[in-house]
Design brief:
heterodimer; A: alpha+beta; Gyrase A, domain 2; Alpha-Beta Plaits; 6-stranded mixed beta sheet; 5-stranded antiparallel beta sheet; 4 helices; B: 83 residues; mainly beta; 4-stranded antiparallel beta sheet; two-stranded antiparallel ribbon; 6 strands; binds zinc ion
Chain lengths: 189, 83
């Protein structure tokens, strides 16, 4: 029997290139990730989300943040939920939405990175075909897109951006990020 | 070229996959071989507005019906494809 130990998606990959002066990357620990698909009774789904999370999930590519969970609109009636709770996050969410929506655990499917600093936007501009300027990418915006053919979901956090990207491509994504951010003294926090 | 996805907003061409003409409708199972041949192989080639299916593969993963001018590549309209 093989013993499996929990490892984060970017474990062992994030090596600093510079001082962190222009941009810093950080892999937040202990997050759970899940997809939510609203059931056919949209009114019941909306009411349950209001009762359980005090949130209104409008349909659109928007980030609705509650103290516990970030709900990211990724498609029609589909959200990516990210929050603390690690391995029990998705099961807790599924219990909360039982009967009104479907929840699938994605904690092992995505790696999460926070990119902050004055040059974070300039780094992403090298690979992401999305205008992240505040005039085009609002405070509550979410973009499902790609960087170097690798899927990525992007939203704002204080001082920068949070990225969710497929765990199995973490090494390739890091290769792109470290090369693209080197000129800005990429640091690791 | 950018496509205005009704869910995601205006997005770069690289995020989409092209299927083709939105007009052909699968013939009934009782149709003869000529109707099936037409459905599979025959396409109009208009110079001007053309309704076509695009898949937002790297975005919301919705199928869209896009009206594009084949002479200029101007995208005139994009909507979710009917299920
Ligand atoms: Zn889209």
């Amino acid at each position: 029997m093989v013993d499996l130990a929990a490892r984060s998606a970017f474990d062992g990959l994030l090596l600093p290139i510079g001082t962190g002066q222009g941009v810093t990357v950080h892999e937040p620990a202990g997050l759970g990730v899940a997809t939510i698909l609203a059931g056919p009774d949209r009114a019941a789904f909306a009411a349950r989300v209001r009762d359980m999370f005090a949130a209104t999930l409008s349909s659109g590519s928007m980030h609705i943040a509650t103290p516990a969970i970030s709900f990211l609109g990724t498609s029609r009636n589909v959200w990516l939920a990210v929050g603390a709770g690690g391995s029990t996050f998705a099961a807790d969410l599924a219990r909360s939405l039982a009967g009104v929506g479907e929840v699938a655990d994605q904690s092992g499917a995505y790696g999460i990175l926070d990119l902050t600093g004055p040059n974070a936007m300039a780094v992403l501009a090298k690979g992401l075909p999305i205008d992240l300027d505040s005039s085009a990418f609002a405070e509550d915006a979410v973009a499902v897109s790609h960087i170097e053919h690798i899927g990525v979901i992007v939203w704002r956090i204080p001082g920068g951006f949070r990225l969710a990207t497929p765990r199995s491509s973490a090494a390739s994504f890091w290769h792109w990020l470290s090369a693209s951010a080197a000129e800005y003294e990429l640091g690791v926090a | 070229m950018r496509i205005p996805c009704p869910f995601c907003g205006p997005r770069d061409l690289s995020e989409f996959a092209y299927l083709g003409d939105a007009a052909p409708v699968r013939p009934a199972e009782t149709s003869d071989a000529t109707a099936v041949f037409d459905y599979v192989y025959l396409r109009a080639n208009p110079a001007g507005p053309h309704r076509e299916r695009w898949y937002h593969a790297s975005g919301c993963r919705l199928w869209l019906t896009v009206t594009r001018d084949t002479r200029t590549h101007e995208v005139l309209f994009a909507e979710e494809a009917a299920p």
